[in-house]
Amino acid sequence: MVRHWIQRFSRTHPDLQFFLVGVALFGFSQSLVDSTFNNFLNDTFRLTDLQRSLLEVPRELPGLLVVFVSAALGFLCNRRRAVFAMFAMAAGVGLLGWAAWTYPVMLVWLFITSVGQHLFLPLNSAIGMELANVDRSGQRLGQLNAVKNLVIVLGSLFVLIGFKYLHFTFPLTFTLAALGFALAAWSIFRMRPNKPQPAAMHLKLYKEYRLFYWLNILYGTRKQIFITFAPWVLVTVYHQPTQMIALLLTLGGVAGIFFQPLLGKWVDTRGEKFVLSGEALLLIGVCLLYGFSGSWFPHSLALVVVCACFVADQLLMSVSMARATYLKKIALDPEHISQTLTAATSIDHVFSISMAVAGGVLWKLYGFQAVFLLGAIIALINLLSALRIVIPARTKTTIDLGETRPSV
User: What 8-state DSSP symbol labels residue 404?
Assistant: First the structure.
């Protein structure tokens, strides 16, 4: 089996090889940070529930600003901007590990890390679809996500073993993550540059893509609930240690190795409406169980249910690939894809930041259950919106990786 995959990898285009390695290093490094960050905050700064939610404002602000950052880097092509993003994450995470002397200083390093992360997220989909054959965008994104899930498993196991048996510390873990981001930058830099887009293109919105923008707004609000509050519930309500978060990320990663390619095939064969509406329907149940299991079940069973929901949400997050392929199918011009993905990231973060603050207030006033009840309502709206998706009939074009034009 391993030999088969090595042979397949050796036959792929060099640009795809370098990008796969870069995505793998990114996923491994990000898993080191995700597995430890909430416990790092809790152990180092002893944040209250409201303080933790307000922390999402500086952490998510780069997502709002990413369209302007991308425009400022418009003289660089997608692949070179991805390199810049990786170096930003390497610098920010390294400083988080060794120079977070005070809470305000920590916020500065977190902001730098987040700039890189939010810049790379739309580029990941855009570059992945550049490297896909005709009508196989979902499959390609599924393959990339499967690779990322595999290394997330390795990274989470690394944290689990390191903290349990090898006396790992937060500075050491963040240093290893920074090194991984730097190596990812080097790998992506080895790709041939393609055509950059003028800065003005990154600041345009198109009415033809309004449903795509709306779906991303709903995704941003739903995503923020689980990114911010789901691990915080495990840490503060169920009192779970770093090892448990790492274990759940490991389980989600293992499941994702098999789920991601299947999801990509579903996107290509069953369509975006089927995938996105199915995700929204499942998410309604996940939100309700996450919020109310403690009231419905004994504590030990509630913890199992909540952990299962945490893993399920990790898998559902990957459905974002269907939004990217939907955009590709409705795009008026192929050059709109990258900048529209970036613009959508900025738009959804207006609501994502608002959700972080509103969720913190809801938690303080009515308990964490109210936060996840709101998530279920958003999922219902998402379901009704996804059912409106219509894919227009377009002339199909082929993609030849060998025709990539060099530039900056």
Answer: P
